[in-house]
Amino acid sequence: MASSLTCAGIVWAFLSFLCAATSCVGFFMPYWLLGSQLEKSVSFGTFRRCSYPVRDESRQTTVMVEQCGRYASFQAIPSAEWRICTVVTGLGCGLLLLVALTALMGCCVSELISRTVGRVAGGIQFLGGKCSCKEGMGV
């Protein structure tokens, strides 16, 4: 297998893949905020939630559903800001994954990544990282 990457490029490809995978796992995991409600431990993230309250109309009370799952619809995400965070973070993870997979393919295919393609990929990766990190830091 011939590669169009230098040793530094191969290290970049593998680190890019590890960072993209970590970002995607963090995006899909519901452990961004932890707390308690109705004496039960609860957690949620932009995309999923665990142990959430639901109104039981038959008993006219609120019960805790003790399982993890995604929101029923995009509109079920608690606020407009949280929806924006979900879209921006998801877009960032997608960009990071796209660059990482392209870089890994560059390890196996000769002449796939030129200097110009590497620079463009680095810019896209910077943008993806900025989208993923900016929302996580509350900036």
UniProtKB/TrEMBL annotation:
The keyword ATP-binding does not apply. Gene3D superfamilies: 1.20.140.150. Keywords: Membrane, Transmembrane, Transmembrane helix. The keyword rRNA processing does not apply. Coiled coil: none annotated. It is a multi-pass membrane protein. The chain crosses the membrane at residues 87-109. Pfam families: L_HMGIC_fpl. GO terms for cellular component: membrane. It is found in: Membrane. This is LHPL6 protein. It comes from Todus mexicanus. The gene is Lhfpl6.
